[in-house]
Amino acid sequence: MRFADLFCGIGGFHAALHQMGHECVFATDIDKHAAEVYEANWGKPGGFDVLSDIRDVIDDIPEMDIICAGFPCQPFSKSGAQEGFEDQTRGTLFHDICYLAEKHRPAVLFLENVPNLVAHDNGNTMQVIESRIQEMGYKHWWKILSPHKYGTCQIRKRVYIVCIRDDLVGNFEFTFPKEQHHDLDIRTVLDKNVDTRYNMTEDEICWLDMWEEFLNNVNTETKLPGHPIWADCFQGDEELPGELEQYTKAQLIEIGREWARYGWVQPVKGAMKRDEMIDAINLPSWKQDFIRKNRHLYRHNRAFIDSWLKKWRVLEMDEEGAPIIPVSRTKYEWQAGPDSRSNWENIMQFRPSGIRVKRGDYFPALVAMAQIPVVGWLKRRLTPEECARIQDFDVDGNLGDPFVLGESDQQSYKQLGNAVNVNMVRMIQERIDMYLDGVEDFPALSTQITLESF
């Protein structure tokens, strides 16, 4: 079948559908670097330049049987029942998908997005999408899936939406691939000889050694805390205020003054509106809960934590008044379970919110930001080629010509963080092809899943 690859990135949909013999007739993306990588691997489908804004070329897109789209998540209009669902989506990129679907009437719409799409804008976004799909004459199914349940060592939850044109819907339901149990081994994607530029810096190793000592000396008789550890919240004695909405403006000014030493609190001024004061204090209930838990952790490990703070100068300032250790590195989150007590046998990410440690049997989701997973026992980051493997791009040429990444590591990390997982797309497309061929490996037709049943 012929497919159009919208918001195509470097071609995750293309890689999957190409393996199955489908033909790409058009591809578009507004990112210059991603378009260059796409063309280096797939050429110019239909003879069209990949680098383009869909809104500028939408009437040039030829007929297709499948629309593939990992579309951006945008809020829709909420002006009410007086507007149709088409009007509510107007001005969004999802509207452009719908325009093409109504113009060409392809058999299939195959959509992908982050799982938060389901709850985005208090569920309004997903409700409008589902209603608009039905309005256009398609039956649809959706499910949140992750490749680590299908043999790829990356946890990457995404919502996949499969839409079949009404006249092609059989008397049985479409179903997504069944989850499978796999003993994942991340070593299968790691290269033995890697350039030293991927090594951790001396500062990063120092920060991990600092937290390694912490791991080995807190809660030695019990389990490690599962909540984020914030070193600047150990010794505080400020009263936790609870819900800030209950206070007057004068009381909020006093609360802001009391909590002013914390980096997340902005100055609270009398000229501010009450909601602005609450936003500046930035103490939602979940944050107060973490502060409470960190104080509890400190009280039960006071002697060690006091010496640890002093030894590593965790909260001290340099001569210019800047933190000796960046604030984000004084925050730490252990998600590696009860069977480990070492950073160096797990996978880590240096995130803006702190250092996060996860179990060493699969990688956390790649993201477009600079949070490249670090392999603890190798003390280095994943290379772009290794990141491509956990996105199931064939950089090793096992299925033919190897997939070629761009020259910039930074751009490759960004592109792979934005990409769809090739193996997930391929397995779902296999099910789509079976469904259209009438293979009754599917349950009998039943009531459609809706957002309310999620």
Automatic annotation (TrEMBL):
Keywords: Methyltransferase, S-adenosyl-L-methionine, Transferase
Keyword Methyltransferase: yes
Coiled coil segments of this chain: none
One Gene Ontology molecular-function label: DNA (cytosine-5-)-methyltransferase activity
InterPro entries listed in its UniProt record: C5-MTase (IPR050750), C5_DNA_meth_AS (IPR018117), C5_MeTfrase (IPR001525), C5_meth_CS (IPR031303), SAM-dependent_MTases_sf (IPR029063)
E.C. number(s) listed in UniProt: 2.1.1.37
Keyword Iron among UniProt keywords: no
Biological processes, Gene Ontology terms: methylation
Annotated PANTHER family: TRNA (CYTOSINE(38)-C(5))-METHYLTRANSFERASE (PTHR46098)
UniProt-recorded name of the protein: DNA (cytosine-5-)-methyltransferase
Taxonomic source organism: marine metagenome
